[in-house]
Amino acid sequence: MRKTQITIDVELDENHIPENITWNAQDGGIEKEPTKATMISVWDEKAMEALRIDLWTKDMPVDQMKMFIHQVLISLGNTYHRATGEEDVAQWIGQIAEEFAIKSAIKM
Predict the structure, then answer these.
(1) How far from chain centre, in Å, is Cα 11?
(2) Which of 3, 55, 56, 92 has the fewest CB atoms lying closer than 10 Å?
């Protein structure tokens, strides 16, 4: 069996708010790559619920956060389609992403 690691390092200010976030992925050749935001979800099979960690630095611009959320929504639709094969639901998630883009003024 082979193992690999993906790690996220978070530097916090005195109020425990992220100032810097970097991530590392051995197999991808990524080391200490800076990022302004991350969302991690894991499935808790015992509780039958998703557990999440959402982090962003205090200097993450709001317009970039809106774009990040929009792209996460698009990715969710793609992931859903790959996992279930249900194209109609995946397209519906894509429509939600487009509505989000319009309502958040990313797209006019």
Answers:
(1) 19
(2) 3
